[in-house]
């Protein structure tokens, strides 16, 4: 058949190529179908070949040793445990905690920072010395310690919320906490004990040395009390004055070398 145009390929052959390319784009297995092999037959053959290759590779490969310790070895009665690794060195100082952003309705960022810093300091002390420095404190003493670590003094706008929460937890008042914080900052736990533990100066005054004895002074009462002395306290004071006078006379006799005169009484006869 003689075609009217002289193109190579002719327009009929070009149309057939375009149609074949469109079918191959839609289904590549059409190319294998032209050779008499369908899609399902080809995929089954590939699956069988890959399975056979994997089985041969598994037989030729040496079995890998399991990771870890076998159960029979771990439960053996004569098994010796390896030594523990050396502990890491203690850091020179506790690190600073990260910054906590403020959130509406969330906790106080400064309070979180204070608690995290306190926990880091306690952990560092526990690693360094083997004991917790605040383990023996009571709830009230620990609340005073935390409040004393907060910058500022007294019930200010910045400390009022903290003082209220800490004092409520210890069943005390913010005023009590403010006084206790001032004592803690002065002397620590001993300063707080001086503030809160009762004491009486009269036993110490009754056994005072001679330099504290004077006929013009009387033993002070505890905490500046203005009550009149009891008969027992007056008797103790008189005994202390007699002893002071005796020691003074003996000192004078030693200096002058003369005899010691007995102390005379200034009371009139009844």
């Amino acid at each position: 058949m003689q075609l009217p145009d002289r193109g190579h390929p002719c327009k009929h052959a070009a149309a057939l190529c375009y149609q074949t390319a469109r079918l191959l784009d839609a289904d590549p297995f059409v190319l294998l179908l032209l050779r008499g092999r369908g899609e399902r037959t080809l995929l089954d053959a590939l699956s069988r070949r890959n399975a056979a290759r994997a089985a041969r590779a598994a037989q030729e490969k040496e079995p890998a040793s399991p990771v870890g310790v076998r159960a029979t070895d771990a439960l053996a009665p004569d098994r010796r445990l390896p030594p523990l690794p050396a502990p890491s060195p203690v850091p020179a100082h506790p690190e600073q905690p990260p910054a906590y952003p403020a959130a509406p309705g969330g906790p106080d960022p400064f309070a979180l920072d204070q608690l995290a810093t306190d926990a880091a300091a306690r952990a560092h002390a526990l690693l360094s010395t083997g004991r917790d420095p605040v383990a023996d404190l009571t709830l009230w003493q620990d609340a005073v310690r935390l409040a004393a670590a907060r910058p500022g003094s007294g019930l200010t706008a910045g400390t009022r919320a903290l003082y209220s929460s800490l004092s409520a937890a210890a069943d005390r008042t913010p005023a009590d906490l403010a006084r206790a914080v001032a004592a803690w900052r002065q002397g620590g736990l001993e300063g707080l004990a001086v503030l809160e533990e009762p004491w009486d100066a009269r036993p110490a005054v009754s056994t005072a040395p001679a330099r504290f004895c004077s006929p013009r002074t009387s033993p002070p009462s505890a905490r500046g009390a203005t009550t009149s002395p009891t008969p027992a306290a007056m008797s103790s004071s008189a005994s202390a004055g007699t002893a002071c006078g005796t020691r003074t006379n003996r000192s004078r006799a030693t200096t002058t070398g003369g005899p010691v005169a007995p102390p005379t009484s200034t009371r009139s006869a009844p």
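DSSP finds ten helices and no strands in the chain. Residues 242 and 265 are 10 Å apart (CA to CA).
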